[in-house]
Design a protein that fits this description.
With 103 residues, the protein is mainly alpha-helical. The chain contains 5 helices and no strands. The chain has helices spanning 12-27, 33-40, 44-52, 59-68, 83-92. The longest helix is centred in the N-terminal third of the chain and has 16 residues, at 12-27.
């Protein structure tokens, strides 16, 4: 891997998921790349890169595209059901002990 691609190469499985998300965003709404770009105030090339799953597109651009398509609440679903994280969080919680009663 060359120095210029080290930070941009994704595992194949993740790359495929990025492509699926990119395609679904525009195609479900039956909009052209130009229409999405105009609504999200970005270039058609950037929208095209999102559809291809290019990993160098900033998360902020994805959010603007989701917002333009009225899908921005979907971002909240990303880590919603994190069973392992919840279990770890629960382990770290301290149990509160009741203060002893003064006589």
């Amino acid at each position: 891997m060359t120095k210029s691609t080290m930070g941009t190469k994704l595992p194949r499985k993740l790359e495929q998921k990025m492509q699926i998300v990119g395609e679904q965003v525009r195609l479900r709404r039956n909009l052209s790349i130009a229409q999405v770009a105009e609504r999200a105030t970005c270039s058609p090339l950037t929208v095209s890169r999102i559809e291809k799953g290019t990993p160098t597109v900033a998360i902020g651009i994805y959010l603007r595209v989701l917002y333009a398509l009225q899908l921005d609440d979907d971002i909240l679903l990303l880590a919603k059901e994190d069973a392992m994280g919840k279990a770890l969080q629960d382990l770290g919680l301290k149990k509160r002990e009741r203060a002893s009663k003064k006589e």
